[in-house]
Amino acid sequence: MAPKTNLQLIQECDNFPYYEDDSEFYERHMSNYHTFKVNGCNAVLGYIPNSIVEKFHWIENDWKVDSTARTVTLMAAPDAEPAVRNEIMTRLIAEAVRRETFEVLKGWRNEMYPIYAPGGKFLMEIERCASPLFGIITYGVHMTGYVEDEKEGMKLWVARRSKTKQTYPNMLDNTAAGGMSTGEHPYACAIREAAEEASIPAAVFEERARPVGVLTYFYVRDARAGGETGLLQPEIEYVYDIKLDASHTVKPCDSEVEDFRLWTVDEVRQSLKEGEWKPNCAVVILDFLIRHGILTPENEPDYLEIMARIHRRLPFPTVKFLK
Amino acid sequence: MAPKTNLQLIQECDNFPYYEDDSEFYERHMSNYHTFKVNGCNAVLGYIPNSIVEKFHWIENDWKVDSTARTVTLMAAPDAEPAVRNEIMTRLIAEAVRRETFEVLKGWRNEMYPIYAPGGKFLMEIERCASPLFGIITYGVHMTGYVEDEKEGMKLWVARRSKTKQTYPNMLDNTAAGGMSTGEHPYACAIREAAEEASIPAAVFEERARPVGVLTYFYVRDARAGGETGLLQPEIEYVYDIKLDASHTVKPCDSEVEDFRLWTVDEVRQSLKEGEWKPNCAVVILDFLIRHGILTPENEPDYLEIMARIHRRLPFPTVKFLK
């Protein structure tokens, strides 16, 4: 296999078309989707492939499907509480599970993901594995543990995913990462995942980790993600750097990680070229290498395109953590 | 004056509309512009306001203006050398200077800015002050000198612009910054500006500065930029952090800077709220505060919108520094 360029790694995660690249193609492409809305809120919350719209058993009164405007609207009263919308969604998904309509619903997580209105108002939630059916934004945290070695320079703590993981088994992963469920805040999620996945104690995280930005991309799911292909997964990943002591050893805690290795930047870059990384973890590493001055405008010909693509402005409302 | 939010500061720099916010408004808005092209290259290189197209004296054979398709095309042969395109552009601009057609041309810089084709091929160049008439991408570098003070925490070297500067007199500015002319690379430009504007010796820069990313935004010029308003200035700013010793004093070198002060993060944040910063320098500071974990997802409600807006994917081809 030819070595992958860094831009190719980005393109594996950010592969939904851009209007500005070819507006006619984009508009034609958009006719493959229904927009997902809730009654009383003008914003589009996600895109649902037409093929998925056809397979759901939409319950009248609960849902309004307009195949001309290509919209699917959840019909709770405009001023309904989130719980009312949740019930309608749960009813729909439960029926799809019963009928075994969708592959992705076989990966039930029992974890709820939030959906927000403009201004960051919490609208409702949806079971994690059902979220790509509606193409809503999902939120997560990723963190990179690293060491400044006096002799060998910077080294990164790299995880190898367990061989038995449902998705991307045996691929390389960030030091720790995880999805944010309803109500969770990025920092709290990061501190939990650091402990659960990489045995990093909360006190170490609090002293040594810092938030360094957020990465966003618009992912069209392929076979490696499992389940139906072509589902949309616009993602927001809050990113943390953890500068660890050379004496600190990162070790697995739960069964999700096979092992950890402390790699030089050259070893990391070689493994990226060889396509060994889970796609969205490669994005996190590339951002790390850019922020730490290892990838530069002069040594990475696609520097500009990479930076814009991993900070994509998504076309849906997003969370606001209010002060 | 009400204190400015960080998002408001970003909006002052990134104020060209987004297709995804309101596609009908966007398309109506685009009818105010002609696209700028060169013969033989399919890409759009910039947007020219219709009011500017009307005022230029387009020379037949040199230029093709199509008011139905709303395109202005520079008609050198498709395989022409850049010098041929440059001559055509120079002829047009010289005539506009002679007739005093445009205010912006009174700020002649005698500095050439490059224009690239897709793939990063150098197409031609244009006098710096004329570039907003064509709405082409311009490139620059910005850097932030900072100190880790044991008692007071992080402090930033902030410049006050000279009272006599043509643009944004007396406003706050980054430690050093400057535009990249044809042929210049970011690192070389940064090292030059650090010496010229902040008396930072090349050896100090080489030891202590690192490239940390690139900021991009689409600026619609207002009165503060000088000259015609409504001209477009999509910008790309390569960003550097310079971690200085507490003993190092940053001092002005040329006449562009009034003085430097070493400010705490709180002092910097207060001055941002008070609107004291040149708009695109505020963007650089906000990115710095995010990368250094001072602005966080939890304390900045517009974290996501800010990060996407300052890494905007511009709709024109960009430079590639080839390895």
Automatic annotation (TrEMBL), chains A, B:
Signal peptide: none annotated. The keyword Transferase applies. It comes from the Eukaryota. InterPro entries: DUF4743 (IPR031804), NUDIX_hydrolase-like_dom_sf (IPR015797), NUDIX_hydrolase_dom (IPR000086). Transmembrane segments: none annotated. Keywords: Kinase, Transferase. PANTHER family: THIAMIN PYROPHOSPHOKINASE (PTHR13622), THIAMIN PYROPHOSPHOKINASE 1 (PTHR13622:SF8). This is Thiamin pyrophosphokinase-related protein.
